[in-house]
Design a protein that fits this description.
Length: 79
C-alpha cells in the first residue's frame, strides 16, 4: 500500500499494479517518490541486470511489528 496525498492509497495487490514487484529492503537499491497519484522509483546506485528492485517502505500500517525478511546485513528486524 502506498498512501497518497489525498487520503487514498494504491494497493499493489490489485489490478496488476506494478508496485507488487518492489519489495521492501532495509538496504534498498531504489527510493520512492509519490507525486500526486503517481508513484515513481529512482535508483540509489547502479542496478545490475536481473537484480531485484527494492525500496525502504519506511513507516507502514504494520507499525513496526511485521518481521522483516530482507536479509540485508543492516536489517532493522521489523517493518
Ligand atoms: Zn530488513
Amino acid at each position: 500500500m502506498v498512501e497518497l496525498w489525498n487520503g487514498l492509497a494504491l494497493d499493489g495487490t490489485v489490478n496488476g499494479n506494478d508496485l507488487r514487484f518492489i519489495n521492501h529492503s532495509c538496504a534498498p537499491n531504489t527510493y520512492m517518490r509519490v507525486i500526486g497519484v503517481h508513484v515513481e522509483f529512482y535508483a540509489l546506485r547502479e542496478i545490475e541486470p536481473g537484480e531485484e528492485l527494492t525500496c525502504d517502505y519506511g513507516p507502514t500500517h504494520h507499525d513496526g511489528k511485521l518481521p522483516c525478511r530482507c536479509g540485508s546485513p543492516g536489517c532493522r528486524g521489523y517493518i
